[in-house]
Amino acid sequence: MPATSVIGAQWGDEGKGKIIDLIADRADVVVRFQGGANAGHTVIVDGEKFVFHLLPSGVLHEGKLNVVGNGVVVDPTVLLDELEQFESRGLKLRDRLLLSGAAHCVMPYHRVIDGLQEGEKAGVKIGTTGRGIGPAYADKANRCGIRLWDLIDESRLRVRIQANVSEINRFIVAVHGADPLEADAIFEVAREQGRRLAPMVKETGAFLRRLLAEGKHVFFEGAQGVMLDLDHGTYPYVTSSNADSLGIAAGAAVPPAAVGHQIGVAKAYCTRVGSGPFPSELHDELGEKIREAGGEFGATTGRPRRCGWFDVLAARYSAQLCGFGGLALTKLDVLSGMGEIGLVVGYDIEGLGRVDEYPVDTHLIERAKPIIETFPGWTEDIRDVRSFDDLPANCQSFIDQICDRVGVSWELISVGPGRESTIIRSVA
Ligand code: IMP
């Protein structure tokens, strides 16, 4: 069985949670490979809402193994809270959750720095989730991070926390006039968290490679999306990990050739949270209407999401960069009754004129005005539709337009939040 992955094709929040949950059902093991508690997947099962930040979505499926790979940054406080929450709802997780010892920890000081540094970095305000993600990845790259293997080794943990906190204190006190942090208090909490997590900490790379060799179905679930990828997104308005499928091999410790079939998830329109260029953004009441109809408020921070039409250039770029084998189109139902529906098919960039391919350089995207083609909408409620042929003709042709222009066929179409509100062509 080849591996499968699900990747956000836009700016995150594409409705991946539900698609991931559906595919997790067919997998033997579900793997997260990047990001941290900045993610927020919402899955609705039998009307019950589950919000995930760190745990792989396979936890909802009895008997599935779940791996948090080395590319994830793990906030032990969030992880332990999430474990408790899910366990209190009757799910048994600890014997089927493996945490890579090489995954880095988000420490309390990373959150402090995330808050203090917003607005300070080269004059750019990113609008982060405030979860300490950037500072944790910065420590990883700077080789002073604390890995889960360190968290569960008291003597190493003490030395590392003391060294890091004394360095950070010099910086936050002198530069920001903030109160110094107490290394001993941070150590005591972290030591206890390490004790509780220790039974789950393993070398997960070898484990995953063995499963792949045995032909097991390994499923990689992406967080965020291609346009928020550190290398390939709208830098610097991005997250600090490789949120596209190029991050899978490094973040799960598997060979690139094992990555397998990739499904790109895209909403039938676009949203973005935080700052950064977003050419398709609708600044009028239509944007407000989509936000309300789609419940477009962040699962992690509750912030209102910026809304716009489906951006063909961005989605095609994502598809070509990652090599998507199929598309999952979500939230089609939100567009019911919107009147005419737009697709961004080009950018008009000051000084360059019309551009038909996504230009990648953020400075160009900042100057881009959307070229919009409009299509007749539909008024029917499509939430109970279960086959493509039963969708209103205008909805079918809108989907065809998207797939033709992005260059990838649809595999799943989501017409409502529940598992059942899905049209499935074929799932690997
Ligand atoms: P950070 O990941 O908290 O550092 O935030 C960096 C940027 O990524 C900000 O614009 C966030 O709003 C955005 N971001 C991070 N995680 C998500 C997500 O799961 N969905 C959508 N946007 C996200």
Topology:
Elements: E1 4-8, H1 16-24, E2 29-32, E3 41-45, E4 48-52, E5 65-68, E6 73-74, H2 76-88, E7 97-100, E8 104-105, H3 108-117, H4 133-141, H5 148-151, H6 154-176, H7 183-197, E9 201-202, H8 204-213, E10 218-221, H9 248-252, E11 261-267, E12 269-272, H10 285-294, E13 306-311, H11 312-322, E14 326-330, E15 341-349, E16 353-355, H12 362-366, E17 368-375, H13 393-406, E18 410-414, E19 422-424
Parallel strand pairs: 1-10, 1-11, 2-5, 2-10, 5-7, 6-8, 7-9, 11-14, 13-15, 14-18
Antiparallel strand pairs: 3-4, 12-13, 15-16, 15-17, 18-19
Helix pairs in contact: 3-4, 6-7
Residues 12-13, 38-40, 126-129, 131, 133-134, 223-224, 228, 237, 239-240, 273-274 line the site of inosinic acid.
Features:
single chain; alpha/beta; Adenylosuccinate Synthetase, Chain A, domain 1; Adenylosuccinate Synthetase, subunit A, domain 2; 5-stranded mixed beta sheet; 19 strands; binds inosinic acid
